[in-house]
Structure to design on (515 residues):
């Protein structure tokens, strides 16, 4: 089956579009209107060169060297030197999903028509994406201001026949060979084209988006794990009463409480202890709507910020074709992205933190009413004892990683660039945090399933029982101690499922409606 084509309309790319880009398996096209905007801005740049007018980034040096005028015969060399000199990234290459987002968002940003590049530059970025040829971009080396200079320079290197590319089958080839595969020769960059390619927030934004999409996965898994844990300890559903949450009015809290009511609707376990008088469960059970609702609100806010940034012209200077103005500003400063990434980090950390507390509750027989450490013949068997230690280690690690990155700044470029966002690290650390929380939530869900089975009698709701069965397809009941590492990995993958087939899929889009 042929891949479908997603048309990118600069300024109107949605969060759903960006999720599709990250997953891959789609071709990208560009709207006709965007092509006209590109041509108009490029004509302004050429007019400046032809007239001899001096404009930053077109015929001057860069950063602290902005006062140096460059003669017309050296402009192509200027742009090439810029790309090569800024290709100083380090660290492991960015993951494929992130690079796909970088290619798409860089194409969208340039196609806003404020950068002055040829349409052929944007076409080349899209052609690389469509051929599954992903530039190898080092993950470290950007401070998130003046654009993601170093990582984007590694992207730009490919267009001039330098650098490296990873093919769809995982091979690493030179940039010139990648261009040849899509029928192109290395570009001789025109005025401003090198600067436009390396200036922008696309790497920071792509990392933060990848973190957001992972956070959505573990959020959904965390809600399901919470429902399983509530059933395992026969907790009260009275704290889910809609009147409680309406009285406070927090939208995320209301949505989460509603989702949990839907998940548990028709549960025989709930009915079996309906009149037990249990109304004061520990906070990790009782306050799931309050904690996870706050996480959901923050994820929704971050989603709006990042969707806006993915559509943004974050180059400098910007070209305004309607009157020929070229204006220097600071749209390359990724402070909005840094703040959004920090908010996502807090949410990811808290999703894992409350899940770890529910896991500890399940293992504590004095609170849960279940066998110690969720295993028969405990003492001879340790059951889930050390699985909880793993969860605690990762939850603690996430608390350190959640320290705000945006509060740090180190001046660069001889103090010309004297305040920076650190957005790139802010986004990059989210990927590790998501995997940490996926393990924590996965262990909780495995433990809760064990707890339900240890008390097996009345059944839970149809939705929870379906998830119970899905977990049992991945991991077996722990009758006695066994090698658990494969089970932990299987549950990490369970927590990272894309597009959760539960009522959660009905509440997340409504919460994210504005994106």
């Amino acid at each position: 089956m042929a891949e479908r084509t997603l048309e990118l309309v600069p300024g109107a790319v949605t969060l759903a579009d960006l999720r599709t880009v990250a997953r891959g398996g789609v071709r990208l096209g560009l709207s006709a209107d965007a092509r006209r905007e590109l041509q108009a801005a490029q004509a302004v740049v050429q007019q400046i060169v032809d007239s001899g007018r001096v404009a930053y980034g077109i015929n001057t040096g860069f950063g602290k060297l902005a006062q140096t005028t460059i003669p017309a015969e050296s402009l192509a060399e200027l742009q090439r030197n810029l790309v090569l000199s800024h290709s100083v990234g380090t660290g492991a290459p960015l993951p494929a999903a992130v690079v796909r987002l970088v290619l798409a968002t860089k194409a969208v940003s340039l196609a806003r028509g404020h950068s002055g590049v040829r349409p052929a530059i944007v076409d080349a970025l899209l052609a690389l994406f469509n051929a599954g040829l992903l530039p190898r971009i080092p993950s470290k080396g950007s401070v998130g201001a003046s654009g993601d200079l170093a990582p984007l320079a590694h992207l730009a290197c490919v267009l001039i026949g330098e650098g490296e590319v990873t093919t769809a089958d995982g091979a690493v080839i030179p940039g010139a060979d990648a261009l040849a595969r899509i029928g192109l020769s290395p570009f001789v960059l025109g005025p401003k084209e090198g600067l436009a390619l390396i200036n922008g927030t696309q790497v920071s934004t792509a990392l933060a988006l990848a973190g957001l999409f992972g956070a959505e996965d573990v959020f959904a898994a965390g809600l399901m794990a919470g429902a399983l844990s509530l059933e395992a300890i026969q907790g009260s559903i009275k704290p889910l009463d809609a009147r409680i949450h309406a009285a406070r009015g927090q939208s995320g809290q209301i949505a989460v409480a509603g989702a949990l009511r839907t998940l548990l609707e028709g549960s025989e376990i709930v009915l079996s202890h309906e009149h037990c008088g249990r109304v004061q469960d520990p906070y990790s059970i009782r306050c799931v709507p309050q904690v996870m609702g706050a996480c959901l609100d923050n994820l929704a806010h971050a989603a709006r910020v990042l969707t806006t940034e993915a559509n943004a012209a974050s180059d400098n200077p910007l070209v305004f074709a309607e009157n020929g103005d070229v204006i220097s500003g600071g749209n390359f400063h990724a402070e909005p992205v840094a703040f959004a990434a920090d908010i996502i980090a807090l949410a990811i950390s808290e999703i894992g933190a409350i899940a770890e507390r529910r896991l500890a509750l399940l293992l504590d027989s004095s609170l849960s009413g279940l066998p110690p450490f969720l295993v028969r013949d405990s003492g001879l068997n340790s059951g889930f004892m050390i699985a909880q230690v793993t969860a605690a280690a990762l939850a603690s690690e996430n608390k350190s990683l959640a320290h705000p990155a945006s509060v740090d700044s180190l001046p660069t470029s001889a103090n010309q660039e004297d305040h920076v966002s650190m957005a790139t690290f802010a986004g990059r650390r989210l990927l590790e945090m998501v995997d940490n929380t996926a393990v924590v939530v996965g262990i909780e869900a495995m433990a809760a399933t064990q707890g339900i089975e240890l008390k097996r009698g009345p059944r839970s709701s149809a939705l929870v029982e379906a998830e119970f069965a899905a977990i049992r397809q991945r991991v077996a009941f722990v009758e006695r101690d066994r090698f658990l590492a494969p089970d932990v990995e299987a549950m990490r993958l369970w927590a990272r499922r894309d597009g959760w087939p539960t009522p959660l899929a009905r509440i997340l889009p409504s919460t994210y409606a504005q994106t």
In short: The mean pLDDT is 90. The two ends are 30 Å apart (CA to CA). The beta strands are 5-8, 27-30, 90-93, 134-135, 138-140, 164-166, 172-174, 318-320, 325-327.
